[in-house]
Design goal:
This protein has about 400 residues and is α+β, with helices and mostly antiparallel strands. The protein is built from 10 helices and 6 strands, in the order H-H-H-H-H-H-E-E-E-E-E-E-H-H-H-H. The mean pLDDT is about 85.
């Protein structure tokens, strides 16, 4: 009995020590709050400065197109630039994270503040804790904005860009063929997106590669007033139903039916993937795969990028702290130069690998995650080489 009691006591003491250790890890000390505040304030300041410069250059470049399109200044501000700011801030978030870490950590090292921290017994691992907390806040914010918030604003930005700047908005689709469901193939000779109507429609159903039904209609109209998705009205329709050697034909003037397609499925808008939230992107990829549609790698790259980008905040933070936590003769300039080279290298690597996925059939998931994997290895090497 005494032996059992001693085991219980040891187990209790172990749990208690773990809880105390966990509480210490979760408790933010003054130095943690100081570093987190410096990290986030530098990050936000850099975003504000760079985006302001980007807006000035972008406006100067496009002012002629704005004038030629006779678009109002109000639309330029509210439809374009107010959506431009969060999109580009999120897109280059890893770059801002890296530069922010290099900038203020080099300043801390230059002022001998990191030496003072280490003289109190603080290890490099302990120094990293507030950095990783701040990187975690940025990563969560980046993910939520990129997955759910920014795509809604991008709808207006992309539409504005295609209508007034690139002027490539198409409203007519010709000879559209797609698989709308398992064994169901639709074809439309001509479709007008303005009136949501088309002509020369056919719908073929197959079971085990055998045709069982062939529907044709002279005209087809998408029902925009219906609460149901995929609701269509067929005019002057004819249905041939095949059952073995027997054939049944039915026809009529009007038929309300459900066809698993929408007008938006007939048109590809440039940068359309940027206008979709994460669930919409997932649904679109699944639907296009079902239809056997080509060239969906762009959407797959965008989908995986929504997850990979937030992780870059942690990787680049470790690299940044490892590079700039030591006082150097060259001062901040040396660390900042290496940091800029690595951050632009990361963005270039990401762009090249995404291009391989889009144009060379490289797996989208692997293409998106390769830069993170490579730079994670670099981060680990630098972390191991940094003195404790």
């Amino acid at each position: 009995m005494k032996r059992i009691w001693l085991h219980i006591k040891d187990w209790y003491q172990s749990i208690r020590r773990l809880l105390i250790k966990g509480k210490e890890l979760l408790t933010l000390k003054r130095i943690d709050r100081y570093i987190i505040k410096k990290f986030l304030s530098t990050y936000i300041f850099l975003i504000a400065i760079v985006i302001l410069i980007a807006i000035i250059f972008d406006y100067n470049e496009k002012i002629d197109k704005f004038t030629q399109s006779h678009v109002s200044f109000e639309r330029i501000i509210f439809d374009y630039y107010l959506n431009f700011i969060p999109y580009f801030s999120n897109l280059f978030s890893p770059l801002f994270v890296f530069i922010a870490v290099i900038f203020f950590t080099s300043k801390l090292a230059g002022n001998s503040e990191i030496i003072a921290m280490k003289s109190t017994g603080m290890s490099f691992r302990r120094l990293l804790r507030p950095y990783m907390i701040a990187a975690g806040l940025i990563a969560i914010t980046t993910f939520l904005l990129g997955a759910y918030v920014i795509p809604r604003g991008n709808v207006q930005r992309v539409e504005f860009d295609n209508t007034y700047i690139k002027k490539k908005k198409s409203t007519i689709a010709e000879n559209v063929q797609m698989q709308v469901d398992t064994g169901v193939v639709a074809y439309i000779t001509h479709f007008d997106n303005e009136s949501k109507s088309g002509y020369g429609f056919s719908l073929d159903k197959f079971i085990d590669k055998k045709l069982i039904s062939h529907l044709t209609a002279q005209n087809i109209q998408y029902d925009t007033l219906s609460d149901r998705r995929y609701s269509w009205t067929l005019h002057m329709y004819r249905i041939r139903t095949l059952k073995g050697m027997r054939e049944t034909i039915t026809s009529g003037e009007k038929l309300d039916t459900i066809v698993m397609m929408e007008p938006s499925d007939f048109f590809y808008v440039k940068n359309q993937q940027e206008t979709m939230t994460l669930p919409q992107l997932n649904e679109f990829i699944h639907k296009q795969k079902l239809r056997g549609a080509p060239n969906i790698s762009t959407f797959e790259v965008e989908y995986h990028k929504r997850f990979a980008m937030p992780f870059a905040a942690f990787i680049l933070t470790i690299i940044g702290v490892s590079l700039s936590s030591q006082k150097r003769k060259g001062g901040m300039g040396f660390s900042l130069g290496i940091g800029l080279a690595l951050s632009f290298g990361y963005i270039l690597f990401q762009t090249i690998s995404a291009t391989f996925a889009t144009n060379a059939g490289f797996p989208a998931m692997l293409a998106v995650w390769i830069p993170n994997i490579v730079f994670a290895i670099i981060a680990y090497i630098l972390y191991q080489r940094t003195p404790e």
